[in-house]
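Dear colleagues,

As part of the handover before I leave the project, I'm documenting each prediction I ran so the next person doesn't have to rerun anything. This entry is a single chain, and its sequence is reproduced below.
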Amino acid sequence: MKVQFTETVLRDANQSLIATRLPFEKFEPILEKMEKAGFYSVECWGGATFDSCLRYLDEDPWERLRKIKSKMPTTKLQMLLRGQNLLGYKHYPDDVVKKFVQHSVSNGIDIIRIFDALNDLRNIKVAVDETNRCGAHASGAISYTTSPVHTLENYAKLAKEMENMGVGSICIKDMAGVMSPKEAYDLVKAIKETVKIPVVVHTHSTTGLAFMTYLKAIEAGADVIDTAISCFSGGTSQPATETLVYALRQLGYEIDVNDKLLLEINDFFKPIRAEFLESGTLEPTVLATDTNALNYQIPGGMLSNLISQLKAQNALDRLEEVLVETPKVRKDLGYPPLVTPMSQMVGVQAATNVLIGERYKNISKEVKAYLRGEYGQAPGEIDAELTKKALGDEQPVTCRFADTLEDAFEATKKELGDKAQSDEDVLSYIAFPQVYEKFREKREASLENRAQYTIETM
């Protein structure tokens, strides 16, 4: 049996460990070797990379993608897309989703992994259809979690519905690293018995389960696993690529990855890791095993956000209370998977409940939007009293929320006028208006300075 690898160092690994602060110039020299390493795909875009490029790295994310593609013309480049949320934190109109997918593909993306935080498939259909129309591979991702309403039968049913929708593969997306080896085996087996397309497994090393989880998933028939080159692996990142290549080869699996090039890739990234450790961007604690997620179902990134929030309010001593409150809030909200943006909503509301000393005295606008149905259908039953308290007599939306939104791309393009140099600029603005405006101002100032320098040196 053949097992293939998706390398995550250019996206999820550095997002999980260093908050996506890896600039293009740092990894550009290794791209040509990564191109030849034999990966099934290289995840290099989407997720938080788009926001971070504009907000922190002063990079145009679209230009970054084009540069990567120029160095890796034959390797499949992969991105993560939050369905109707795209790369932001709210739902966008269908015309914007279609345009975003079109330009992602035309700028170099080959595989789009598409998920919805609530596993509401209405919210991935437009992105899946457009990905297929553009000739790219749509990988439907199931947001994995455990709860009374998340069962093997329901997950297998989701996978079948995704296959019928037209996805080219099914990804089990375990964002918190809570999927046990047995759960992985049972779930992969159930899905493989239900669909005829490849199954991909994605997990994190947060709880220490990931290596065992991958082995059992592969035994059950998983076709592709997500891993990170070893010096950017472990902790809240993925398991190490080289370790799994070594172990799986010994177990008799067919592996196409080039060991010599893996060594060179890892040697390249070692000094980069050292720089981030020295600067404090890479906090050593995120490399450790944290089993709290097994008790509270809280992903590592969500836990670090809770700690930051409590520190800012001089209330870190109340972390344990917030951890206890978080699963209660999740239950009240119908057991949403704790993935962006749901993890932020649940965590902030839990902290608010604890710090105020009264449950739901203050309800965040995001939770109210969720209760109105703006994010989709909750997996389980939402607490009726909470809905009444938040919405009063207002009736929740029962249709797909995007159906209530008017087209926005052409109107925004007209509004921006000369401020947007391309359709990609328009999409960047729609996704992150204020962040894009600051980025545009910096870009224009840089161009003016360069032009002035050229004139003065002529």
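Residues 106 and 183 are 38 Å apart (CA to CA). The longest helix spans residues 433-457.

All the best with the project,
I.
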